[in-house]
Amino acid sequence: MTWPVALRAEAFGCDRWDVFFEFGAPYGIPDIVFATFSDEANAARDDATYTERRDAAVLLALHERRSLPLNAVAARTGYVTSSVASTLASLRELDAVEQSARGWRRLAPCPSRLKSAVAVELKLRDWRRALDQAARYRAFADKTFVVVDERRASGAAEHRFSFRLNDVGLATLTPWTVNIVVSPRRKRPFDPVGNFLAGERLWAAYRDQHPRDHDAAALALA
């Protein structure tokens, strides 16, 4: 089912996208993610990516102009002080943060590299499980869909309300056609750290897949 769906990105409202398969997202592994990266964010950032949740949470908790004491950073992230101290030390080694007498601050803006993401869960028949998984992907994606085989789609189609209630789209798949049954609204992801983290992991994957494109872009910005 994967490739026929991947080739129909426009059916999911995707524009100027890159496709990723079996992506290790913060809240599971979507079968497909259509991602659009932010040119503005990538221009403002260096090459460093922060693919661990604790690193991302600590980095986003900090400011560029105002230092925060260690206990305040811990309170903002929900991690224990010792873990935050270890993370800050690691980020300092990467020249991402600095320490002063007043506490810690971030050295540069850190906008999300991810402009938009649509996560898709594919299932032959178990639409309830797929719905549960797709609802979790709303943490980092602004739209999510469940795609089921059209020959086994009657049960899911009869429960359209469940999909609308969870802001999850529903589509059916014939051999080469994707038909939208429920179209979800595009919404801001409900976990900012998860969205940022997804952008970091997707961008790292993109660089691995397109090293020449990334090198050319880096030269253009130099």
Write a short abstract of this structure:
With about 220 residues, the protein is α/β, with parallel strands linked by helices.
Topology:
Layout: H1 2-6, E1 18-21, E2 32-37, H2 39-44, H3 53-61, H4 70-77, H5 81-93, E3 97-100, E4 103-106, E5 114-123, H6 127-137, E6 143-149, H7 154-158, H8 160-165, E7 169-173, E8 178-182, H9 192-209, H10 211-221
Parallel strand pairs: 5-6, 6-7
Antiparallel strand pairs: 1-2, 2-5, 3-4, 7-8
Helix pairs in contact: 3-4, 3-5, 3-9, 4-5, 9-10
Architecture overview:
This protein folds into two domains: 2-41 and 113-182; 52-106, Winged helix-like DNA-binding domain superfamily/Winged helix DNA-binding domain (Arc Repressor Mutant, subunit A), CATH 1.10.10.10. 41% of the residues lie in helices and 20% in strands. It has ten helices and eight strands. Helix 3 (53-61) crosses helix 4 (70-77) and helix 4 (70-77) packs across helix 5. The N and C termini lie far apart (42 Å).
Into which percentage range does the β-strand content fall?
Answer: 15-25%
Instruction: Give me the count of strands.
Output: 8
Total DSSP helices? 10
Assign the structural class, choosing from mainly alpha, mainly beta, alpha/beta, alpha+beta, or little secondary structure: alpha/beta
> Low-confidence parts lasting 5 or more residues at pLDDT below 50?
218-222
The shape is elongated
What is the first-to-last residue Cα distance? Answer: 42 Å
Instruction: Provide mean pLDDT, rounded.
Output: 91
Roughly how many Å is the radius of gyration? 20 Å
Helix content class: 40-55%
**Can you tell me the number of structural domains?**
2
The H-and-E topology, N to C, reads as HEEHHHHEEEHEHHEEHH
Q: Largest sheet, order of strands side by side?
A: 1-2-5-6-7-8
Query: What composes the largest sheet?
Result: 6 strands, mixed
